[in-house]
């Protein structure tokens, strides 16, 4: 199997199982309806673990542009393969979302709330606040890359690493995911959001493109800085990139903060799609 196909299949598995658990929890008349946040975070953690088991030995199972860019930024992955990996991840996420749509085909009509339908495909914030939402995604993906590199530096019984990575996803979801649904993966959010936009889902709402940049930009910034942070403080390699990216992250967050101060608070909007979560 080629590296390109491995990343497609790995990311597809991720979204089938990750988006699938959200669908089971939030859509009407499923046997898992209302089973809660813990089920979703566990589902996403296991989704990552299975995806890594499936293609980790072939492509390394990045299944996430933030991981690919983070590893490339510290010299652990060649830059010339970055576009190919990210393209494959986007394709895989889109295909996975299509499969989830067909899996729950009769449940879309049974679910009246369009926010819950969108939550199966992409994330949204519990409280809409640009600075806080962006910061949440930066922190979550920072911890993801820091955790992945730390896990990789330890020796485990053969075959155990993917499961530990899955536990990392569960930990991030339980501890940090309640604010935005922890996308921590641009492909995981953008690919399915495009699928939501295209698919003939009964009673769906617009795909919330105004928010869509946050689960893309936040994970990229957090992932790259997390990898550079690990390189500097855990391996003792100090690079100019660490300081450049650090200043960039700070600058983007300052701009987001200034923008947030000018936002008009939303009133009377029912917040129901707290479970529109993520993965890796």
Measured by DSSP, the beta-strand proportion falls in under 5%
- Helical content class: 55-70%
Number of helices: 11
* Overall pLDDT: 93
End-to-end distance, in Å?
23 Å
Number of DSSP E strands: 0
Rg is 18 Å
- Secondary-structure-based class equals mainly alpha
Low-confidence stretches: 268-274
Name the features.
0% strand, mainly alpha, globular, 11 helices, 280 residues
Describe the protein.
By secondary structure, this protein is mainly α. Helices cover 66% and strands 0% of the residues. It contains eleven helices and no strands. The longest helix has 24 residues, at 3-26. The chain is globular and about 55 Å long. The two termini are 23 Å apart.
What is this entry, summarized?
The protein has eleven helices and no strands. It has 280 residues and is mostly helical.
Secondary structure elements and their pairing?
Elements: H1 3-26, H2 37-59, H3 65-73, H4 82-103, H5 107-110, H6 114-121, H7 130-152, H8 161-176, H9 186-198, H10 214-234, H11 240-261
Helix pairs in contact: 1-2, 1-4, 1-6, 2-8, 3-4, 3-10, 4-9, 7-8, 7-10, 7-11, 9-10, 10-11
